């Protein structure tokens, strides 16, 4: 029974690989096309205001590819995407903000140290 529980804990450990990103534009984004769709997957995110200006980029494996979107129905914007085991790098474009939404453990540049307040004393 103990061996079974040990194996169960090994199986359900979360895997931390790659780095998901969010691309937010200042206009409506449509017609998403990916050069190599086995490297990344891109999902449009719909906001409460239904702005359709947010894309979620999920890496699938390491490599380089290009992502093309149509902005406001007239401007074609191309992003170069490089996926490594540590990070996902998306080229900048005018009118877009790109955010990494997670990073694998050990890659944080700063370790935050803080001290919690002591609990109040119990009165009798």
Describe the 3D structure.
The structure is a single chain. The protein is built from one helix and eight strands; from the N terminus they run αββββββββ. A four-stranded antiparallel β-sheet has the order 3-4-1-8, with no helix packed on it. Strands 2-5-6-7 form a four-stranded antiparallel β-sheet, with no helix packed on it. It is mainly β and 124 residues long. It has one helix at 2-11; strands spanning 21-25, 29-34, 40-45, 54-59, 63-71, 75-83, 88-90, 96-100.
Q: How would you summarize this macromolecular structure in one to three sentences?
A:
Helices cover 8% and strands 40% of the residues. The chain is mainly β and 124 residues long.
Chart the SSEs and their pairings.
Elements: H1 2-11, E1 21-25, E2 29-34, E3 40-45, E4 54-59, E5 63-71, E6 75-83, E7 88-90, E8 96-100
How far from one another are the termini? 47 Å
**Which sequence of SSEs, written as H and E, runs from N to C?**
HEEEEEEEE
Low-confidence stretches: 5-10
Which secondary-structure class do the elements indicate?
mainly beta
Total number of β-strand segments? 8
| Overall geometric form | extended
Main sheet summary: 4 strands, antiparallel
Number of separate helices: 1
Helix fraction, binned, reads under 10%
What descriptors fit this protein?
1 helix, 8 strands, mainly beta, extended, four-stranded antiparallel sheet, 124 residues, 8% helix, single chain
């Amino acid at each position: 029974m103990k061996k079974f529980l040990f194996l169960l804990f090994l199986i359900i450990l979360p895997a931390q690989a790659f780095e998901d990103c969010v691309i937010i534009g200042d206009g409506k984004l449509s017609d998403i096309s990916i050069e190599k769709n086995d490297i990344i997957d891109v999902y449009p995110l719909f906001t409460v205001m239904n702005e359709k200006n947010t894309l979620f980029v999920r890496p699938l494996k390491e490599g380089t590819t290009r992502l093309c979107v149509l902005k406001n129905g007239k401007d074609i914007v191309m992003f170069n995407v490089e996926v490594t085991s540590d990070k996902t790098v998306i080229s900048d474009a005018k009118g877009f903000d790109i955010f990494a939404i997670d990073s694998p453990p050990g890659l944080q540049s700063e370790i935050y140290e803080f001290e919690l307040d002591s609990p109040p004393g119990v009165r009798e």
